[in-house]
Amino acid sequence: TCVAVAGKDYCVIAADTRMSTGFNILTRDQTKMLSNTLYMKRFFPYYAFNLLGGIDNEGKGAVYTYDAIGSYERTGYSCQGSGQALIMPILDNQLKAVSPLLVPPQDGATPLTQEQAVDLVKDCFATAGERDIYTVQI
After folding, report:
1. Mean pLDDT, all residues of the chain
2. pLDDT band per the 50, 70, 90 thresholds, residue 100
């Protein structure tokens, strides 16, 4: 299970297993590369539902969710993995996402401070860890 929450000037990314540390990835370049990689395998897909988060060129937090064939959407927060069904309702309730159907488009950044976002993500993993045998509490 992994969770990402984007704010006005931060992006909190957490997972229940150790992934990697010390990398700085340009969000703009990685979003298109991941989408192309998944789309090239669309007839024999990887069946990986990816989550990519970071800071964009404007210094704003960005979270991208992908389906198995490379379609993606920029959101203010997202979750993937075995604990998704347990964590997404909590995020929806606490962050109340802006509808992508609003015209004109509105900023999807969460209204929380970075510390509040970290606390929310910890609470999400504690909840999922109690109910999902594949999610480890962090």
Report:
1. 79
2. low
